[in-house]
Design goal:
With 331 residues, the protein is an alpha/beta fold. It has a single domain, classed as Ribokinase (UDP-N-acetylmuramoyl-L-alanine:D-glutamate ligase, 3-Layer(aba) Sandwich). It has 12 helices and 14 strands. Helix 3 links the parallel strand 5 and strand 6.
Length: 331
């Protein structure tokens, strides 16, 4: 947890990106043990948007995170951990009653998959509206970051996300949106309809190739699909992550690409959030092409870390961005 001096510095530093969405408590047995026969669990935070905020902080860009939580020990636990990484949590929405969302992750070894069990229905986060948010706080940022997970968790949030994006744009704040489709939360048809309402207010879209097919309603060649998204919704740019092939982007004028890095994967969960953090950092500092390089470096380093949050060192990111292979041993 940050001390009082650190908390004061965080309040006085300008927040450049505000990340909005649910963070849950994640319970996991030790690696490769099964949930069914495990007798103890580790409790960690789990949230795409707070992961992005932490990743930005690791790179030196001050970020804020907003979620809606109950004013109890579990809600405070979630906020305390996020704040411990330097993220500004001063605009969190507190409810006097309700529950936090939870989920369970079982770390499988191939051919047994990683398995997730959600227990998030009816959490306080599912009641968050645009009117709940501190718009004076948000207006001071350069970017708002949202994901497709939020509109999937409730009808209230489905209505809230396009309204949040619209209000941000009206206030001159750019909007980044990661499709981040979750099949356990809603259908492809529901996701497509929701994205059609959100994307007219989005500046920067992040998607995977399968998610792009959901948004477009059909599988298209990569470049044609990105061009179609930018032209259909008036985006500043659309970015597609391609796993081991790197990433591809289109800004209405040209296509840009960045390669993937060779990694020894430890945990793939959270790699997309790390990419988004790097992408936004690069865009803040030097533009879209730099964002792609920072995104790929962040994602690669995250894959080597057991936790879902991007606990990377900026020096390692800079070395990868510069084309230097990280040393096997640092003495």
């Amino acid at each position: 947890m940050t001390n009082s001096g650190e908390a004061l510095r965080n309040r006085t530093r300008p927040v450049r990106v505000v990340c909005i969405g649910e963070t849950m408590l994640m319970f996991a047995p030790p690696p490769y043990e099964t949930i069914e026969y495990c007798d103890h669990f580790v409790a960690l935070n789990g949230g795409a948007e707070s992961n992005v905020a932490i990743g930005l902080e690791r790179l030196g860009a001050h970020a804020g995170w907003i979620g809606k939580l109950p004013r109890n020990a579990l809600g405070r636990k979630i906020v305390n951990e996020i704040r411990s990484f330097g993220v500004d949590t001063s605009a969190v929405v507190w409810a006097e009653r309700g529950r936090v969302g939870t989920f369970f992750v079982e770390w499988g070894a191939p051919p047994r998959p990683v398995m997730t069990i959600y227990d998030r229905a009816g959490s306080v986060a599912t009641t968050m509206t645009a009117d709940d948010l501190d718009w004076d706080y948000i207006e001071g940022a350069e970017w708002v970051q949202l994901t497709g997970i939020t509109p999937a968790i409730s009808p209230v949030c489905r209505a809230a996300v396009p309204e949040i994006a619209r209000r941000a744009r009206e206030r001159g704040v750019r909007v980044a949106f990661d499709v981040n489709y979750r099949a356990l939360l809603w259908t492809k048809e529901e996701a497509r309809a929701a994205c059609a309402e959100i994307l007219p207010f989005v500046n920067l879209l992040i998607t995977t190739e399968p998610d792009m097919a959901i948004v477009l309603g059909a599988r298209e060649p990569r470049e044609e699909g990105l061009r179609a998204l930018v032209e259909r919704y008036g985006l500043d740019a659309a970015v597609m992550t391609l796993g081991g092939e790197g990433c591809l982007a289109y800004d209405g004028w040209a296509f840009y690409a960045a390669p993937a890095h060779s990694v020894q994967m430890v945990n793939r969960l959270g790699a997309g959030d790390a990419f988004t953090a790097g992408l936004l950092y690069g865009c803040l500092e030097a533009g879209l092409e730099a964002g792609l390089r920072y995104g790929m470096a962040m994602a690669a380093l995250k894959l080597t870390i057991p936790q879902n949050i991007p606990l990377v060192n900026k020096e390692d990111v800079e070395r990868l961005v510069a084309g230097q292979r990280n040393a096997d041993v640092v003495r």
